[in-house]
Design goal:
This protein has 277 residues and is mostly helical. The protein has a two-stranded antiparallel sheet with strand order 1-2. Helix 1 packs across helix 14. The protein has 15 helices and two strands.
Length: 277
């Protein structure tokens, strides 16, 4: 009986902690959405209100009138989808090579690649920008996508996944006459779907929310992504907080859609390491 009571107590304490943690994480999102329906005066009011006393629905249309939001939306989605798909695919194929193919200097090369994770990305922006400027590739969609095509963390993640990948499948496919590429695309890649989905969300969020690189690499309004475009709502006349909240609310919609589509595979990818043990 005492063990059962202790178990029940631990269960409810765990639920309570998870509930509190969930509320803390949801609160910023709730505040952003609620604030998008407030006027500027109410947003500046102290103490702040937890819900709009006067519902304002014109903030969203004012955003569309203030900045070319649809153009920025299209730029962000196009750049993010292309960068994410290429990054996930390159991570899968490079990680598979390092995990299953034996060649001279394999471990040393992988450690050198992995060492670049310790270098902050911000410190690489200046030499990367100079390289793109010398190649005359700045101020283009090319410069917004290519730097994200290779993701070192993704290579490491997929390599760790493929290390535990059973060699029996590969050997059986080789006996049946499958070549290297056919084995990868028809056998390896489908089985890597859960981990690839988790990596997809990680890269998608990183590219979609990227601000500094698009800011310094392009100077044409037609090429601005959403984070850079929304920054235009900060002006010398004052910060238009109501419009920023409305624009940010519209901005998170693709992230929620992507997560909803790959949620099952994403959770499976996160837990797959524990299941194997």
């Amino acid at each position: 009986m005492n063990k059962k009571k202790k178990k029940d107590l631990g269960y409810y304490l765990t639920l309570l902690l998870l509930l509190v943690g969930s509320l803390i994480m949801i609160l910023p999102l709730y505040w952003m959405v609620v604030s998008s329906f407030k006027g500027q005066a109410e947003l500046m009011q102290m103490p702040p209100t937890m819900y709009p006393h006067k519902l304002v629905t014109t903030n969203f249309t004012r955003v569309l009138d203030s900045i070319p939001f649809i153009q920025y939306y299209a730029n962000s989605l196009g750049v993010t989808l292309l960068s994410t798909v290429v990054a996930v695919f390159s991570s899968c194929i490079i990680g598979f090579v390092f995990a299953k193919y034996k060649f001279k200097g394999r471990n040393i090369i992988f450690l050198v690649i992995l060492a670049f994770v310790m270098i902050p990305y911000d410190t690489l922006m200046i030499p990367l920008y100079k390289l793109m400027a010398n190649l005359k590739l700045t101020n283009s969609y090319f410069v917004l996508t290519v730097p994200y095509f290779i993701n070192i963390f993704g290579i490491f993640l997929m390599r760790q996944f493929f290390i535990d990948y059973p060699n029996d499948y590969l050997e059986a496919a080789e006996v049946d006459g499958c070549g290297h590429f056919r084995r990868f695309f028809t056998i390896v890649l489908p089985m890597a779907k859960p981990m690839a989905s988790a990596l997809f969300i990680y890269v998608f969020m990183a590219v979609y929310n990227s601000f500094l690189w698009p800011l310094i690499s392009v100077n044409s309004n037609k090429l601005f992504t959403l984070p850079v475009g929304i920054a235009a709502l900060y002006s010398s006349r004052g910060t238009q907080t109501d419009l920023i909240m409305a624009a940010s609310t519209m901005m998170v919609v693709p992230l929620m859609i992507v997560f909803a589509l790959v949620q099952k595979n994403f959770i499976e990818g996160l837990t797959i390491g524990g299941i194997k043990g």
